[in-house]
Amino acid sequence: MTTPTLKDILTTGSTPFSSEDEKLITEAYTFAETAHKNQKRRSGEPYVTHCLSVGLTLREIGMDARTIAAGLLHDVPEDTEVTLTEIEKKFGSEIAYLVDGITKLGKIKLRGTKEELYLENLRKMFLAMARDIRVVIIKLADRLHNMRTLEHVPREKQERIARETIEVYAQIANRLGIGELKGELEDLCFRYLDPENYALTKKLQETYLKEGDLYITRIVALFKTELDKEGVRILNIHGRTKHLYRLFHKLKKHDMDIARVYDLVAIRIIVPEIADCYESLGIVHKLYRPMVGRIKDYISLPKPNGYQSLHTTIFGPEGRILEVQIRTQKMHDESEYGIAAHWIYTEKERRGWRNLFFKNRATPGKTPPKELAWVNQLKEWQREIGRNDEEFMQGLKIEFFKNHIFAFTPKGDIIELPEDATPIDFAYAIHSEIGHRAVGAKVDRKMVPLDSRIENGQVVDILTVKDKKRPSRDWLNFVKTSNAKSHIRREFRNEFRTKE
Ligand code: MN
User: Fold this and answer.
1) Could you read off the pLDDT of 336-386 as tens digits, one per residue?
2) CATH number of the domain enclosing 294
3) Among 426, 442, 495, 498, which has the minimal tally of Cβ within 10 Å of its Cβ?
């Protein structure tokens, strides 16, 4: 892989930067380069190559100039003498806020001996810190480059990092609908987590595809001619090969027989309107017989993460079976880079918070009407990428998860609470005994009243005394969680009963 340059960032993408944006990115680059001077990556390359790679990924997935600038600067406060205040002075509060978000995300030390606990905490940490989706997206770009250069990391660390990446970061990329990024992260992890099967799958694919490249070229040309003849407007036709990690999973299902994996190569047809999708499908079927049970209309019935497309498997030219995917440009962009947001609501509704970042469990079509407007708005904004950054970014800034906060115990465990929760709610969330015995609370090491409001990301330390075993009745006036309420009430109910 070649090292990206500033010029790559400036020239990638279909919409050119304004001169103002170009200036911002150039300045951020110069700033990062100076700050990281004399620092090297483990690979021996200058440190700034890492920053450039993060910036380029952000550009590729359609992020705005400010996010790219923040990506270029993301390691400056943590790894150099230059402080966040200096970044704020030079680049303003918004960019400084993003950089600070990344720094905080990297700083959280997680307790937990058990791997599961660790991963669960990591997921929650993302939620806690992700008040701005852009921070998470920069973090994903950061992780992508770290994975691409994982060979330079000591052996014993590689597996841990790869596991964390596949279980947390790839999941998040998937949830955000950034399919390309998810695919590459998974393949990179696969190589370290299961080297033997990685090599095997890669070999199978290469052998099978040897004549495949030429075949795809021929098919693409053929389809183009046929669709043109029928007067279908086509924006693009291209072939794509399946990501290795996904291919391996398919292979396992088919006794490692690659001839039975029908979507090893797929032809993608990109058209302007939804009507063109169905028209193209008709023409493809007229030309080549479709395989029974393999026609999928994800336009009418989108996948849980918002994916839309028509899929069909045909007995194609030269007697080969292949998959054809037909979609509009918008659907295509969304599936490659989009932030498919509606899962937040469907899944939250159905599964509650705890399962939020586990594998696809949502059912499509369950989005409540109230939220649907928000989802549509976000999709709308998404379409405006590049044309109206301001508004799009406003949309992204809507808090990732409304009405919930996450606070930390001094040991780093994460406690999930509703907005406006108090230290007493926090205490009962840990254990009813902690609640009953509470006499005071420190928030970020300062004493606070028991009825004060906890903010997202704060560390809360509950002070208890051993011989106190009763809650205070006043607490009922300010606690927010039903958990705390019911524990307090129960205590007083017991009291009445004993007296009677
Ligand atoms: Mn980094």
Assistant:
1) 665 433 333 233 333 332 223 222 223 333 333 333 333 344 444 444 433
2) 3.30.460.10
3) 498
Tokens 């992508």 locate to 144
**Ligand 1 center from residue 47 Cα (angstroms):** 9
Least confident segment among 54-58, 160-164, 170-174? 170-174
Examine the domain organization and report whether 21 and 147 are in the same domain. yes
Give the phi and the psi of residue 10 in degrees, each rounded to 5: -70, -25
Counting the structural domains of the chain, the total is: 3
Q: Indicate if 146 and 229 belong to the same structural domain.
A: no
Residues contacting residue 332 through CB under 8 Å, at least 6 positions apart: 268, 270
CATH number at 79 reads 1.10.3210.10
Does pLDDT of 392 surpass 50?
no
Same domain, 280 and 377: no
- Picking from 313, 336, 359, the residue at the C-terminal end of a domain is 336
Surrounding ion ligand 1 within 5 Å at CB are 75, 142
Q: Is 60 a catalytic residue?
A: no
Query: What would you report as the CA-atom Rg of the chain, rounded to the nearest whole angstrom?
Result: 26
112 and 232 belong to one structural domain: no
Q: What is the pLDDT of residues 17-32, one digit of tens each?
A: 899 999 999 999 999 9
Cα 322 to middle of ligand 1, angstroms? 40
pLDDT at 116: 54
Cβ proximity of 85 and 76 under 8 Å: no
Residue tagged active-site, from 22, 33, 45, 79:
79
Residue 58 within a domain: yes
Residue 102 CA to ligand 1 centre (angstroms): 9
Rounded average pLDDT over 176-189: 86
Between CA 47 and CA 54 the distance in angstroms is: 12
**Angle 93-107/84-91 helices, nearest 10 degrees?**
150
Q: Is 22 exposed, middle or buried (0-12, 13-18, 19+ CB in 10 A)?
A: middle
Ligand 1 center–CA 10 separation, angstroms: 20
Tell which of 168, 192, 216 closes a domain: 192
- Residue of higher predicted confidence among 402 and 258: 258
Whole-number Å distance, alpha carbon 19 to ligand 1 midpoint, is 27
Compute the mean pLDDT over every residue in the chain, rounded to the nearest whole number.
Answer: 79
The DSSP bridge partners found for residue 446 are 443
What is the mean predicted confidence (pLDDT) over 226-237?
Answer: 89
Same-domain check for residues 321 and 425? no
Do 278 and 416 fall into the same domain? no
Measured distance CA(115)–CA(486) in Å, rounded: 33
> Do 132 and 150 belong together in one domain?
yes
* Residue from 78, 115, 391, 495 carrying the catalytic annotation: 78
The residue range of the domain holding 159 is 6-192
Average pLDDT (453-459) is 84
Q: What is the CATH number of the domain that holds 446?
A: 3.10.20.30
**pLDDT for the residue numbered 423:** 97
Residues 202 and 164 in one domain: no
Q: How far is the CA of 43 from the centre of ligand 1 (A)?
A: 14
